[in-house]
């Protein structure tokens, strides 16, 4: 099976000592690509250093994460915008709105998010969206900027049937499913029964959100197999079918060269 991890922070300090081994384990599990979303202006060098380890395996994104947005968001976007225009990136990400911890910079988050959505249209790149406690705000921004001209993934989906339906109405967007689907109390399995397979891509969000039975440990791309197994069970199909469909979805969305 060829599996694609569409969201993994493998440039994080957690992988500083054993990145090569993590990639080896991933390949042994059938993972052929891992997409790396940037966080902010301070992580650009770490991201690029990780990609240099294995350019055939790692595919980088560039963006400003909503929890890194400050009142100086315009200055932050200057360096990130320069970087994404000077080098090859597969997507604009990780971008979005996060209202879980703090709402005090909501306006700044919206401004930064919508500016980066405009970049994606300008450069014809998909977006990787972080939307914790902010589904409605993110959907509103997408519609305001231009939903028909945008495409991307709602990263780390763990929402309700209502949130699923709201996202599915955006025809050019998919859902990133990770270890949350294996958590017994998350309720996500019951929601995803109603989600078309062609609208799903796989992700780990490494080093976070490790799936059962690895929950509580450092997550890594090799653990995609547990997510694959759970989705096969939810949809009543083979793991091979889930791997083929979700990889096809990722290749199409991110224009990945095989």
Task: Please provide a brief summary of the model.
The chain has about 260 residues and is of the alpha/beta class. It has nine helices and eight strands.
Explain how this protein is built.
- This protein has an eight-stranded parallel β-sheet with strand order 1-2-3-4-5-6-7-8, sandwiched between helices.
- It is about 40% helix and about 15% strand.
- It is built from nine helices and eight strands.
- α8 packs across α9.
- It has about 260 residues and is α/β, with parallel strands linked by helices.
- α5 links the parallel β5 (about 125-130) and β6 (about 150-155).
- It has helices at about 20-30, 45-55, 75-85, 105-125, 135-145, 160-170, 190, 225-235, 240-255; strands at about 5, 30-35, 60, 90-95, 125-130, 150-155, 175, 200.
- The relative contact order is 0.16.
Overall geometric form: globular
Strand order, biggest sheet? 1-2-3-4-5-6-7-8
* Residue-averaged pLDDT: 97
Find the count of extended strands (DSSP E, 2+ residues).
Answer: 8
Largest sheet: 8 strands, parallel
Q: Compute the CA-based radius of gyration.
A: 17 Å
């Amino acid at each position: 099976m060829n599996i694609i991890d569409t969201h993994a922070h493998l440039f994080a300090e957690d992988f500083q000592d054993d990145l090569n081994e993590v990639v080896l384990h991933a390949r042994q599990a059938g993972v052929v690509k891992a997409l790396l979303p940037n966080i902010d202006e301070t992580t650009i060098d770490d991201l690029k250093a990780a990609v240099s380890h294995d350019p055939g395996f790692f595919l980088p994104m560039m963006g400003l994460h909503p929890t890194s947005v400050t009142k100086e968001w315009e200055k932050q976007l200057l360096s990130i915008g320069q970087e994404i225009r000077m080098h090859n990136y597969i997507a604009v990400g990780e971008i979005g709105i996060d209202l879980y911890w703090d709402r005090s910079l909501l306006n700044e988050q919206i401004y930064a998010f919508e500016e980066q959505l405009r970049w994606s249209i300008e450069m014809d790149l998909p977006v990787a969206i972080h939307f914790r406690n902010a589904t409605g705000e993110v959907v509103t921004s997408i519609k305001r900027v231009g939903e028909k001209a945008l495409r991307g993934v709602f990263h780390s989906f763990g929402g309700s049937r209502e949130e699923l339906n709201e996202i599915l109405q955006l025809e050019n967007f998919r859902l990133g499913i990770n270890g949350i689907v294996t958590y017994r109390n998350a309720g996500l399995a019951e929601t995803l029964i109603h989600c078309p397979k062609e609208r799903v891509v796989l992700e780990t969000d490494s080093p976070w959100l490790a799936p059962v039975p690895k929950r509580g440990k450092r997550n890594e791309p090799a653990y995609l197999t547990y997510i694959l197994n759970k989705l096969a069970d939810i949809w009543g199909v083979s793991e091979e079918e889930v791997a083929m469909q979700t990889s096809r979805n990722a290749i199409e969305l991110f224009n990945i060269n095989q």
